Amino acid sequence: MAAPPATTATTHHRALLPPTRTHAAATHSALRLPLRAHPHAHAQRARLTAAAAPAPAASTASLESSAAGLALLREFANVDCSYGLSPEDLRAKISLCDALIVRSGTKVGRDVFEASGGRLRVVGRAGVGIDNVDLAAATEHGCLVVNAPTANTVAAAEHGIALLTAMARNIAQADASLKAGKWQRNKYVGVSLVGKTLAILGFGKVGSEVARRAKGLGMHVIAHDPYASADRARAIGVELVSMEEAMTTADFISLHMPLTPATNKMLNDEAFAKMKYGVRIINVARGGVIDEDALVRALDSGIVAQAALDVFTKEPPAPDNKLVLHENVTVTPHLGASTVEAQEGVAIEIAEAVIGALKGELAASAVNAPMVPAEVLSELAPFVVLAEKLGHLAVQLVAGGGGIKSVKVTYASARAPDDLDTRLLRAMITKGLIEPISSVFVNLVNADFTAKQRGVRITEERIILDGSPETPIDYIQVQIANVKSKFPSAISETGEITVEGRVKDGVPHLTKVGAFQVDVSLEGSLILCRQVDQPGMIGSVGSVLGEENINVSFMSVGRIAPRKHAVMAIGVDEEPSKVTLRKIGEIPAIEEFVFLKL
Ligand SMILES: NC(=O)C1=CN([C@@H]2O[C@H](COP(=O)(O)OP(=O)(O)OC[C@H]3O[C@@H](n4cnc5c(N)ncnc54)[C@H](O)[C@@H]3O)[C@@H](O)[C@H]2O)C=CC1
Ligand SMILES: O=C(O)C(=O)COP(=O)(O)O
User: Fold this and answer.
1) Whole-prediction pTM value?
2) What ipTM, to 2 d.p.?
3) Which residue CA neighbors atom 10 of ligand 2 most closely?
């Protein structure tokens, strides 16, 4: 949890149903998505652990600020706060938890996901940087990772400015000197900021806020960010420049990009060699974006006059870390996000994201799953159900089931191609296809990975319909190529198992099987029969079902031509016994039949 208090772990026992009150509801759609790893989980109160390692001494402020988030969590889940956990302790505990919330100090590596035994469904990072979480391992284990991307932006920016000004005026060094009984006015002559050029590397949320504030100090601000929008920069009065220009013209350089393989040791010997002699560096991003040995060399040679660092490659740094001990370096122990206000905001932001995810809602701050805006989600909701059911039906029609290699999904829509986000639908089709034939649970997080791992290639195609789109999708078709079917009539003229569905009045319907048009609502279970098209067939099947008191919810007959072959789709509320199914198969005019669970 954010800002760890120095308390010992409190363990609560699983009990009770989750309360109905939802804090996340205001920001997230109520649509439930398959993020649950455990089929029983919704019947029980989720268990969540909030971990931080190692435990710094807690201030009263941090205790109070994390309380609001903890209170939200405790309304929903059994919460176990553990601070100072060793990696072994975290691994030992994690199989008992549905969710884990951490700050930057806790490494959540592959070992943690493996040790969770599939129970861990959400990792909440109570802050921005997710470089301490193994995202690939999380995705492979179907575990959603959410962060708190906005609540500490201002705190980090203010800390950047604090370091900038403190460095320029030698505040930390002068303070230490005076406290040591010295009065060194000549030694601590600083440099002015007004009119100086500040280069911001990483013009995202924090970088932009630093830029605004630095402009208020009268600095000339430039920024380098390959992905930043020029309009946003212009609006703040910041010029976007190349890395080369930022390096060579800046008097101050402030780092605000994430730590990724591309940014790792971005400031190295080569970069320092390009900088203006006497440049000053501020790092409130991640220690790893600077080659720390190269920075020591640049400080010693005078290329870098001063540095102000909140973050280090290894945290906490070793006691003999040359940067920490360097006279020209001002340091803080990763305090960028540590204000009362930011920690309260982060705690609430992450609590809401984790609770939403545990409820199966899509988190707006999902890091390893597509972010689908709430309005799109609510519009797509019935199609999400349709997609999963079509996948589920299609796989049950395959004889043998396991040999699926090639699946084509076609969406017919009057929407422009860039106006329909199909990632969610594709994930649900994958779930429908794969879950019935494997022990893997599939969710939005791991759908693409799982399909790839099982060698299932899913291609998507769009049919653009004329007219104005009242609904986002007219129909969805799922086709499985190069397989045999246990219901051969499901194979279309082009040779694939084909099922097609539409949403009618908010309810998913099966509208085509193979070449046969049918219309049956996808609720309960389904019997598909192919028969000679002749009078009395509906009655014959209906009376066999009636004998076992099976309620028929829907029935539809699709035929190619009168008195030839027809496919009858019968929706049933209850699952017929084997005897009843055999009796249906024995009706003389029935040539093929299959029972499908929806
Ligand atoms: N010291 C602390 O306590 C805190 C540190 N941070 C760190 O600050 C960093 C930025 O956070 P936010 O602004 O919230 O993230 P953000 O995602 O809003 O901004 C990051 C920006 O970096 C840019 N970027 C990516 N690769 C780049 C490259 N090679 N060169 C230049 N720019 C590049 C991105 O395009 C993006 O605009 C993160 O690393 C985060 O972990 C954030 C909050 C507190
Ligand atoms: O949000 C971030 O990226 C931070 O660096 C803040 O990390 P923290 O939660 O203070 O360990």
Assistant:
1) 0.76
2) 0.99
3) 337
